[in-house]
Each structure stands twice: as C-alpha cells, then as structure tokens.
C-alpha cells in the first residue's frame, strides 16, 4: 500500500532558488521511493481567484505531515487585517504558515506536522534603490529568528 506524505514548503520570494531545489529533491525522492509518495504543496502550482485572500485559498500547513520553512533576509508580505494576532500585530504569510504549523504541532495529538526551519547563510545583499525597505525586512526577519 502506498503512503503519501504532504509536505508544505513555506518561504518568501528571496529564497526562490532554494524552493526550486527543494522541489527537485522531492521529485527525485518520489522517483526512488517505493510505496511512498511526497506530495509537495507549493503556492505557485495553483491558480487563485480574486474573490478571496491568497492565504484563504492555499492548503493550511497544519493539515500537512511536514512543513519546511526556508528563510534568508526577509519574512515576506503582510497578510490582511483578518489575520491579526491577539497582540494586534499582523504576520506575513511565511510567519502565519510557520505559526499555524507550530501551534498545531504543539497542541495536537499526534504532534503533527513536523516543522523544519532552515536559514540561508549566504552573505546578505541589498539593492540600493530598495535599501530602506530591504533593511526593514531584514531587521524583521532577525527579530523573528531570535
């Protein structure tokens, strides 16, 4: 009997290359594993309507078996106010996905999904024309990472 594992890949746009690598690794594993399939959930593999928010239309990380988060120098775009946290702050999509998965993993039985968080360690560069914005994104990421 074949077993399918659902893997949610969460990451902002600055690690697009790493998203591609992760997708290729999953394809290779699926070709080599016998009786096991990894179904990778990537937002870019689907189409979305304009009558609802993007986050409302993608699979929830907490509904998956494994959540992989990849970060480098930014957290991504803020979600709409409907996603406001109890403390009044509004998370980015990547923060929401991480928090949704982690909350479910610590509060559910069984403790799923497994949440794996990776940080790209390449030197950080900024575009001069976007310096203020990119620096603010980096500062927010570093606060989140701590």
State Rg: 16 Å
Uncertain ranges: none
% residues in beta strands: 15-25%
Number of strands: 4
Mean pLDDT: 92
Please give the largest β-sheet.
4 strands, parallel
What is the 3D form? globular
**What distance lies between the first and last C-alpha atoms, to the nearest angstrom?**
42 Å
- Kindly name the structural category: alpha/beta
Give me the side-by-side strand order of the main sheet: 2-1-3-4
Q: What is the number of helical segments per DSSP (H or I, 4+ residues)?
A: 4
SSE arrangement, N to C: EHEHEHEH
Secondary structure: helix percent: 25-40%
Short description:
The chain is an alpha/beta fold and 146 residues long.
Structure description:
It is a single chain. By secondary structure, the chain is α/β, with parallel strands linked by helices. It has helices at residues 16-32, 54-57, 93-107, 131-145; strands at residues 3-10, 36-41, 66-71, 114-119. It has a four-stranded parallel sheet with strand order 2-1-3-4, sandwiched between helices.
